[in-house]
Design goal:
Length: 73
């Protein structure tokens, strides 16, 4: 069984492909944070998701198989 990754428990390869595409990374990033109940972190992703957060998400998805957890609030 493949190890589950971020983006709704999808597999690592699927999550990595979705993280590479900027629009899907932005949309799924804030939806994931909202679904975890992290409203402030979701709003930050919604506002700032097009720049440095996307690059950090991509690097962290490759290295640690998880998206950036900027705030746990």
């Amino acid at each position: 069984m493949a190890r589950k990754s971020d983006y709704f428990g999808l597999g690592y390869i699927v999550s990595l492909i979705l993280a590479i595409i900027p629009v899907t990374s932005w949309i799924l990033g804030f939806i994931t944070r909202f679904s975890e109940g992290k409203i402030v972190a979701g709003l930050l992703r919604l506002i700032l998701g097009w720049n440095i957060i996307w690059i950090c998400d991509l690097i962290l998805m490759i290295v640690s198989k998880h998206i950036l957890r900027l705030l746990n609030v």
